[in-house]
Amino acid sequence: MQNFFVKSHGLGNDYITLNQDDISFELTEKAIVRICDVHFGIGSDGILLKVPSKKADFGLRILNPDGSEAEKSGNGLRIFAKYLYDYGFTSGKVFSIETLGGLVKAEVIAEKNGKAKTIKVDMGKAIFESEKIPVTCENEECIGETLKLADKEYEINCVSVGNPHCVVLKEELDEAEILRYGSEIENHPMFPNRINVQFAKVTSPNEVEVIIWERGAGWTLASGSSSCAVACTVVKRGLTERNLSIKMPGGSLAIEIDEDWEIRMTGEVREIANGTLGAELLEDLA
Fold it and tell me: What are residue 97's DSSP bridge partners?
C-alpha cells in the first residue's frame, strides 16, 4: 500500500515506520521534520525507514525528528523488528538488520495474537576508546573525566554502542536539571558528532534508574541504546552486576553484558496506529 505507515512505541519512545519502496515522495530533512511534528504531521520521536541491504536480511535508516540521521536506536530496532514480523516481511523469529551503527540480530521472544510482543536485540559491542566514540579527551578512555559548561561541571563517562553516549552518575535524578543542561551537553565542542546524554542513579546491584536527553530529539521517555550505554558504564565503573534492569520514565529494559562487552537488550513493543499519509500532508511535504 503506497505511503503506508505504522506508528509504534517502545516504553513511550515512539517511531513511525515507512517502507522506502512504497513511499511516493522524497524523504528530505524538511519532510522528516514535518511528519514528526505533533501538530502538522503524525508526531513521533523519529522515522524508521526500511531500505535494501546487501549485508543483512533487512536495512534500516533511523531519522531523528530534527531531520538528522542516527547510527542506532535500541527502541527503534525493536519497533522495526516488530514491524517486519507483524507485516509479513519475515516468517522467521530471528533475523539480521543493517544500521549505520553496524549489523544487529533481532529475535522475537514472545508474541500475542500472531503479533510480536517482546523483542531481544543483540546491540553489538561497547566501545570505550575516546577516538572511536568520538569524544575529544586527553585520555584513551573518557571515564570519570570533567566536562565544563558555562555555569556547571559534570563528571562524565563516554561510550559508544553504535552511537555516542555521555553518562553522568548522580545521587538523585532531577528532570529539570537534564532539561536545562541536556542540549548544552549534547552540543558541547567535546563531542564532534554531538552526543546522547543520560543521568543515571544506581539503586541496587541489578537496577539503575535513568533519565535521558536524546541527540536530535531532546527529552525522551525511554531509549534502548541509552539503556545499553548506562549499563555498560556502571559495569565499567564496578558499581553493578552484568545483568541489569534499566528503569526509565517510560518503563524498564533488561540488559545483559558479557565479558567481551557484547550487549543484549530485551523489552516490549506496542503498535499505536497504522494508515496512509493523507493527500494534503503529501502536498505539504512537496
Answer: 58, 104
Q: How many domains are contained in the chain?
A: 2
Quick one: 90 and 18 in the same domain? Answer: yes
User: Strands, DSSP E only, in 113-250?
Assistant: 115-125, 143-148, 153-160, 164-169, 196-204, 207-214, 218-220, 243-248
The CATH number of whichever domain residue 60 belongs to comes to 3.10.310.10
Q: What is the mean pLDDT of residues 73-91?
A: 97
d(CA 73, CA 164) in angstroms, rounded, equals 11
Clarify whether residues 249 and 209 are in a common domain. yes
Q: Which of 173-177, 214-218, 245-249 has the lowest mean pLDDT?
A: 214-218
What digits encode the pLDDT tens for the residues 235-278?
999 999 999 999 999 999 999 999 999 999 999 999 999 999 99
Question: Is residue 277 located within the same domain as residue 255?
Answer: no
| Cα(140)–Cα(133) distance, integer angstroms | 11
| pLDDT digit string, tens, across residues 93-129 | 999 999 999 999 999 999 999 999 999 999 999 999 9
Selection from 213, 208, 222 nearest residue 251 by Cα: 222
> CB–CB of 219/183 below 8 Å?
no
| Distance separating alpha carbons of residues 132 and 130, to the nearest angstrom | 6
Distance CA 89, CA 121 (A): 18
Cell of 285: 511535504
The answer to whether 244 and 234 are in contact (CB under 8 A) is: yes
The boundaries of the domain holding residue 249 are 130-260
| CA 257 to each of CA 8, 93, 200, 232: distance values in angstroms, whole numbers, following the listed order | 27, 22, 17, 7
d(CA 225, CA 160): 9
What letter would DSSP give residue 186? H
Q: Tell me the pTM.
A: 0.91
